[in-house]
Give the backbone structure.
Amino acid sequence: MADTETPRMPDVYRARRNLTGKIRRTPLVDSPALSERTGVPVALKLEHHQITGSFKLRGATNAVVNLAPAEAEKGVVAVSTGNHGRGLAHAARQAGVRCVVCMSRLVPANKVEGIRRLGAEVRIVGESQDDAQVEVDRLVAEAGMTMVPPFDHPDVIAGQGTLGLEIVEEAPEVETVIVPLSGGGLIAGVALAVKSTNPRARVIGVTMARGAAMYESQRAGKPVPVTERPSLADALGGGIGLDNRYTFAMVRDLVDDIVLLSEQEIAEGIRHAYWQERQIVEGSGAVGLGALLAGHVEPRGTTVVLLSGGNIDMTQHAGLINGETVVPTEPA
Ligand SMILES: *Cc1c(COP(=O)(O)O)cnc(C)c1O
């Protein structure tokens, strides 16, 4: 796995070749409901229909394909809130590579099971991603495994960037792209690809107000730690890494704005996806919808909303779409 410098467009094109035949090219569909509501053409990138249910398969597959033979032999390991683990487990199994995923106890049960079913070994450690990271570091040091990080790696960012390529190919006139944001691998790759073809397009990140690591870090001018808190957007939890090497700078340079959503606004995104768009989207995947609906993004020009994942517990989903106020409670 090459680990050199900030990814650029040739890396995204190489990632696209690496991913050919291994991932789905997901549809971009018009949203009449949101177009009418906002007064601009709105389209949805249905990436929750990706194999394994989220875009994380793209970055993980690119990283696995780029492993040197000696690395592939020892296997890959990751800390994950779920979707990265699923993506990596699938990518590793496709390539015949061993995979261990470490995660904290905050991760929902459906995500843990999903990863096991994809053939990875799961280790549950501690209360935070930082605790899980300690176990990952041990496996790297003692078993010689290669860590594939969920966002802060050139191969991962370039892999996520293939989504940006698909968006500009199908909607070359796009002026606004709304992207869920946590560690920033997704938005860094997408912004790189979108702005290289369409420099005037706005790329806007959306995250939850509860523990907005990248937002707080950009405000502070350097990576800062945040307290992890339960959220409907559970895949957006966690810090950006105090030793962040790529995504902090790329977000600073390429992203136009970051908006924050309340838990109620995230719930509205999930509900809109279901009742108006007939899509089952997890909280993290629905924040772009929530941002538009709440009026946090000023509608301008052709707008693409990226629906990044669909791995939601179906009991929780049923409650939400039937109007229950399902805001995760803080531990005492
Ligand atoms: C990981 C994830 C995100 C955030 O991606 P980053 O690269 O960490 O910013 C958004 N949505 C879903 C569904 C995810 O799994």
The beta strands are 28-30, 42-46, 76-79, 99-103, 121-124, 146-147, 176-180, 202-208, 257-261, 303-307. Residues 154-170 form the longest helix (17 residues). The CA atoms of residues 172 and 198 lie 8 Å apart. The first strand starts at residue 28 and ends at 30.
